[in-house]
Design brief:
With about 1000 residues, the protein is mainly beta. It contains 13 helices and 59 strands. The strands form 13 sheets. Strands 48, 49, 50, 51, 52, 53, 54, 55, 56, 57, 58 and 59 form a 12-stranded antiparallel beta sheet that branches. Strands 30-29-28-27-26-33-32-31 form an 8-stranded parallel beta sheet. It has a 7-stranded antiparallel beta sheet with strand order 1-10-9-12-6-3-4. A hairpin with a 4-residue loop joins strand 49 and strand 50. About 50% of the residues are buried.
């Protein structure tokens, strides 16, 4: 890697003349910056943070202003102030411009390396004094940790260089330019540059100085670059430490009695670092001029036996893709926000992070080291927009751009190489293929043989150490696991990961449990990374959260930027709760009923499996509870041996209570933290399992009352009906409005998306066939001796197919039973969105109680986390606030529910939802703020709901979760709650 130091020409340049703009479209990475080196948060050398309030002037073009603003004495008092780190388009209430969101389309004409004349340019000024105790000797460096997308820097009127590589550090030597007070740091930032062609990630385009700016004193003999090599031998239990340093010094690790010279190897017994057991040893690198704290984790990463192994064991990644995001600050994250991300990951059983699609703030990796997360560290590279022209002129296959690509690789590797959490380097994302990527891979392999190299676009694995894909279907993943996927000889010998899967856009992702079963079945499948961690919604005064198009962009991709497991305020979505359950580190399967047994087990036992890769189960406490009709009647602790990783054991449960009262009974077994950890307190739940003992008796009523025809009214038990239409009006004193068959749902993002393999969009087909505008034809109202029968046909205009629907009402005098029979007519070529009944209650209906799945929503392919029990909520509390409103909030496997003075029992179990707006209003809303509560609470009781899938970007709903138009019969028993 060729080093770059300050050039004599630039070093002597003065501000004040016409702006030189050639560097903006230069494909080189820049000039004047020092060689990249290892990042460390602190040392005993002085430093001065230059974060805070800066003056800003934004010009619409690159050449609108000259360089005089960089001269000492320039009067910028009239300029507004902005916060650094920050993005100027997220400050000033739009006065400095607005954000732009595109998934992969470049928001400017594609003509590399040229960029538009309309190139917003932010001139930043910061005047600072040196602290009184700033040393007079030695040198100094200014470090920029992140600037988008191109910057030119002056200190005290001297041009010190320019750089590209937005999410990478750049340092400049400035000791000779400093003075005790009145230092003027001027930074000109351009939104667009040649570097923008390399930064086409799926995210908001947000210019600015968005990471820290720091002045570092460099004493004589201070540390430069250093590389901590800390390997672990899993056979001997020993670690070998060697610290290579550009400046000679000594390395001490007191806990290990290590005191050696740099470059010298030492081997001692150690505790290994893993994501499950993140043991770090504190050490110091001491040179003549500086003492640098070290946090050392001993671990070895190898490709062996066709598997990714750490410390001799194959690992299973249960990961997420993490963009940096804050709803008000964009990618300018503080340490508390980063720590919140890591703690949320750990508490939801996430064990790995892919830093999509750029190196994160380096402090995030410190947290991964400390708390324990595997990291795929990805380079700041994506050229996805070139796919629109069949990858012509793609920079990664153009030798002119290779120095910039190598510079980006080097700045990532050198900055992050001392983090034990980083086990894989990634060349970038969706950049096609080309010679430049090969050059990056070769350089990385040569510089750091202790880690593996990843790149999803390398399907033949020519340059990489694993076969990686995104959004492959369950069937294809299983084929790969079975080693039936073909490919090159090299690829067939490599492990497989899904670097992106389970697109978490809106309601979903569906099918997580089905993927996880494959990962746990086939050794070659070493896990996956959900796309993605957090919704990129921007706080907006009228819309709640804004997404693409809300700022008037001429090109945008709408709410495709809102596809995370967290809402923008970092509230976990149901998708994250589901993921936590699916990837839990302890498997709990039980067979409590004398009528059922499992292979190799026996009745009244629970099988516990340690699904971790390294740690035994000693960190967890187990407890059992026994429920009758959803209520716990007994509980206690459960003694589970400290099973080794991968080991299973059969544990005897206590005798169940003698009398279950004839109700539905079940066991629940939970695993929780046995003691406080750094990431969660004692008692934090990590895993659970439930299994039935006695099934629920079906609700039954004797049809002892018959319908009575009165003046325009039919009465039946506690209910009244319209005599002409047979429509239900009241149950006791509760008014019921518009009860009828319902097949429509407010389409989800996954419904709207094109299914990955077939290109099918069910939302499009459902609307084509009119399922959102079904007509209800009354064919007859029949009063018999013991039943009121209403016959209808439900069908869309313009099509011949429909649903013959019969409502049969019976009563025992106090309760009312509805049996709905549905028979498809004609040729149905699409599944149904839902199948059930909908009705309205008075707006005063608010408190909801139910026995069924909860506490959160669950659908056919998203209900692994749905626990069977008794739950309570308000109607508003049932809603899931997806940024683009859509079908949400259904509680699965409900036995009975109570709302608005009614109790509703189902046969069989049903899905329950209630909301203060109609499905049609929900479907029409673009933002949360479009939804206004009305004077009716609309209740859905669903016999079936079509699954969720991940069709917004990936596979659709698996066949077993599709709701086919087939003959169906289901019943509900209504009674008034006194």
């Amino acid at each position: 890697m060729t080093s770059r130091t300050t050039s004599p020409t630039l070093g002597s340049a003065r501000a004040g003349g016409p702006p030189s703009i050639d560097y903006v479209e230069d494909v080189s990475p820049g000039s004047g910056a020092l060689q990249p080196r290892a990042w460390y948060p602190s040392s005993d050398a002085k430093s001065l943070s230059l974060n805070g309030s800066w003056r800003l002037r934004v010009s619409p073009t690159i050449d609108a202003e000259d360089d005089s603003f960089a001269e000492p004495g320039f009067d910028a008092d009239g300029w507004p102030e902005v916060t650094v780190p920050g993005h100027w388009v997220l400050q000033g209430d739009g006065a400095f411009g607005l954000p732009i969101y595109t998934n992969h389309l470049y928001p400017f004409p594609v003509d590399p390396p040229h960029v538009p004349t309309e190139n917003p340019t932010g001139d930043h000024l910061r005047v600072f004094d040196l602290p009184a105790d700033w040393p007079a000797d030695g040198g100094a460096v200014i470090r920029f940790d992140g600037v988008e997308s191109c910057a030119r820097v002056w200190l005290n009127g001297t041009d010190i260089g320019e750089f590209k590589g937005s999410r990478l550090p750049h340092e400049f030597a400035v000791g000779h330019l400093l003075k005790p007070s009145g230092n003027v740091l001027a930074v000109r930032v351009h939104q667009w540059s040649a570097g923008s062609y390399l930064e086409d990630q799926d995210q908001w385009w947000l210019p600015g100085i968005f990471r820290d700016v720091t002045l570092l004193h460099r004493p004589a003999g201070s540390a430069l670059d250093f590389f901590v090599h800390a390997s672990y031998d899993h056979v001997t239990g020993e670690g070998t430490l060697r610290v290579d340093s550009d400046v000679d010094g000594r390395v001490t690790v007191p806990a290990l009695d290590i005191d050696v010279s740099t470059g010298e190897s030492v081997t001692v017994p150690v505790e290994a670092w893993t994501a499950e057991t993140p043991k770090l040893y504190d050490g110091v690198l001491a040179t003549d001029g500086e003492r640098v704290p070290l946090r050392i984790g001993f671990r070895t990463v190898v490709l062996e036996d066709g598997l990714i192994k750490v410390n001799g064991k194959a690992v299973l990644f249960k990961g997420v893709n993490r963009h940096e995001w804050h709803p008000e600050k964009g990618r300018a994250l503080d340490l508390d926000t980063m720590r919140e991300d890591v703690l949320l990951m750990k508490r939801h059983n996430v064990n790995a992070v892919r830093t999509s699609h750029y190196p994160p703030h380096p402090a995030f990796l410190d947290l991964c080291d400390e708390y324990g997360l595997w990291v795929i560290d990805e380079c700041d590279l994506e050229t996805h927009g070139f796919t629109e022209q069949a990858w012509r002129d793609n920079p990664v296959d153009d030798d002119r751009w290779t120095p910039a690509l190598l510079d980006r690789a080097a700045r990532m590797v050198e900055r992050d190489k001392n983090h034990p959490s980083v086990v894989i380097w990634s060349l970038g994302n969706e950049a096609g293929t080309g010679r430049g990527l090969t050059a990056m891979a070769e350089w990385i392999h040569g510089r750091d043989a202790s880690r593996l190299v990843h790149y999803e676009g390398d399907w033949n694995s020519r340059d990489t150490d694993m076969y990686s894909r995104m959004y492959a279907s369950h069937a294809e993943v299983e084929q790969i696991g079975q080693e039936l996927d073909g490919g090159t000889h090299k690829r067939r010998r490599l492990p497989f990961i899904l670097c992106e899967y389970a697109h978490a856009m809106g309601n979903g992702p569906g099918g997580l449990a089905d993927y996880q079963r494959l990962f746990e079945t086939y050794e070659r499948l070493q896990g996956a990374f959900v796309w993605e961690w957090i919704d990129h919604g921007i706080t907006h005064p009228e819309l709640g959260y804004a997404y693409g198009g809300d700022f008037g962009e001429e090109l945008h991709d709408g709410n495709f930027v809102c596809d995370g497991l967290l809402f923008p305020d970092r509230t976990p979505s149901p998708g994250l709760v589901e993921f936590k359950k699916v990837v839990e580190p302890v498997g709990i399967e039980g067979w409590g009923s004398p009528q059922t047994e499992f292979g190799g087990g026996s009745a009244g036992t629970v099988r516990v499996t340690n699904k971790q890769d390294f740690a035994d189960l000693s960190a967890f406490a187990f407890e059992w509870s026994y429920q009758v009709d959803g209520e716990t009647v007994e509980s206690g602790s459960l003694s589970v041996p400290a099973l080794a990783p991968g080991e299973s054991g059969e544990v005897k449960l206590p005798e169940p209570p003698a009398d279950g009262g004839g109700g539905e009974t079940q066991w629940t077994v939970r695993a929780s933290l046995a003691a406080d950890t750094t990431w969660a307190p004692k008692g934090h739940p990590v895993a659970w399992g439930q299994f039935a003992v006695a099934a629920r008796p079906s609700p039954r009523i004797a049809a002892t009352d018959g319908p009575v025809l009165g003046e325009r009214v039919i009465t039946l038990g506690p209910a009244s009906f319209d005599a002409r239409t047979g429509a239900l009006r009241t149950i006791g004193g509760v008014a019921v409005n518009g009860l009828r068959l319902d097949v429509w749902r407010a389409t989800t993002d996954n419904d709207e998306g094109a299914e990955w393999v077939t290109g099918t969009s069910f939302a499009e087909l459902w609307r084509k066939y009119g399922l959102h505008r079904m007509r209800h034809r009354l064919d007859g109202v029949e009063t018999g001796d013991d039943a009121l029968t209403v016959r209808t046909r439900v069908a869309p205009a313009a099509w011949e197919f429909g649903l013959a629907t019969v409502y049969r009402w019976t009563s025992d005098g106090n309760r009312l039973k509805l049996t709905v029979s549905v028979g498809p007519e004609g040729e149905w070529t699409v599944p149904l969105p839902r199948l059930g009944v909908r009705f309205g209650l008075d707006a005063s209906a608010d408190r909801v109680r139910w026995f069924g799945g909860g506490p959160g929503e669950g659908y056919a392919d998203t209900k692994s986390a749905s626990q069977l029990g008794r739950w309570e909520s308000t109607v508003d509390g049932l809603q899931t606030p997806y940024l683009r409103p859509q079908e949400n909030g259904a509680r699965a496997d409900v036995r009975w529910a109570e709302i608005g003075g009614l109790r509703i029992e189902g046969d069989p179990e049903f899905s329950f939802s209630a909301r203060r707006w109609t499905t049609e209003q929900l479907d029409a809303a673009a933002h949360r703020t479009d939804l206004t509560p009305g004077d009716t609470v609309w209740v859905n009781l669903d016999h079936g709901l079509h699954g969720i899938g991940t069709g917004s970007c990936g596979p659709g709903v698996l066949p077993q979760y599709a709701l086919r138009a087939e003959p169906a019969e289901f019943s509900f028993v209504f009674s008034e709650i006194s």
